[in-house]
Amino acid sequence: VGYQHVVPAEEIRLNPGIETVAPERVLDAVAEIVSGGFDVATEVPVRTRLLRLTDTEHVLVVVVHH
Hints:
3-stranded mixed β-sheet, alpha+beta, 66 residues, 26% strand
């Protein structure tokens, strides 16, 4: 029997992990991040990653299971 476990927001720690990516590869990197699945039985279904393109340009990727 399935059930929903609601985790209070203050207990969620999203550590976005920083990855340096060449600007021409950013779309591939985003596609790779969003295509990963979630094991909703063992993890909060939210994923974040910060892609560093240059010293001043970044892309924040946020994936949320629907």
